[in-house]
């Protein structure tokens, strides 16, 4: 597989994984995102994305999830170690452009990498 792919083993998929991460993970907050980070048991970094209906309609939620996945796909090796990361989108994100969302995500991943 390509270095830029996002296979199934790079994603959090089960509800139990999200719950464990939200209860025991380290929380990192920004103005538009909340990230829960914990040491993972897999061989690489994994990501899970949550965008609730409070953020926007289905089109807006899917757009945000695509942008987060794409940003993580390009920056997955930026975060050292093997971490499980759950990213939760907050209200107000739909008003931002794609460029602004990517800038916010870059800042979030910099905070994750520095902790």
Describe the structure.
By secondary structure, the chain is α+β, with helices and mostly antiparallel strands. It has one domain (about 10-115): Ribosomal Protein S5, domain 2. Helix content is about 40%, strand content about 20%. A four-stranded mixed beta sheet has the order 1-2-4-3, with helices on both faces. Helix 2 (about 60-75) packs across helix 3 (about 100-115). The model has no long low-confidence stretch (mean pLDDT about 90).
Share in helix: 25-40%
Number of strands: 4
Average pLDDT figure: 92
The CATH architecture category equals 2-Layer Sandwich
- H/E topology pattern: HEEEHEH
CATH class: Alpha Beta
Major sheet attributes: 4 strands, mixed
As laid out across the biggest beta sheet, the strand order is 1-2-4-3
The domain tally reads: 1
Proportion of β residues?
A: 15-25%
What is the approximate shape?
globular
């Amino acid at each position: 597989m390509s270095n830029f792919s996002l296979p199934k083993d790079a994603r959090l998929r089960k509800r139990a994984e999200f719950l464990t991460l939200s209860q025991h993970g380290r929380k990192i907050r920004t103005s538009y995102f909340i990230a829960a980070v914990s040491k993972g048991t897999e061989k690489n970094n994994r990501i899970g994305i949550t965008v609730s209906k409070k953020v926007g309609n289905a089109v807006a939620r899917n757009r945000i999830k695509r942008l987060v996945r794409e940003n993580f796909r390009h920056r997955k090796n930026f975060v050292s170690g093997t971490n499980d990361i759950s990213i939760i989108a907050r209200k107000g994100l739909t008003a931002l452009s794609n460029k602004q969302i990517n800038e916010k995500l870059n800042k979030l991943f910099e905070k994750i990498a520095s902790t």
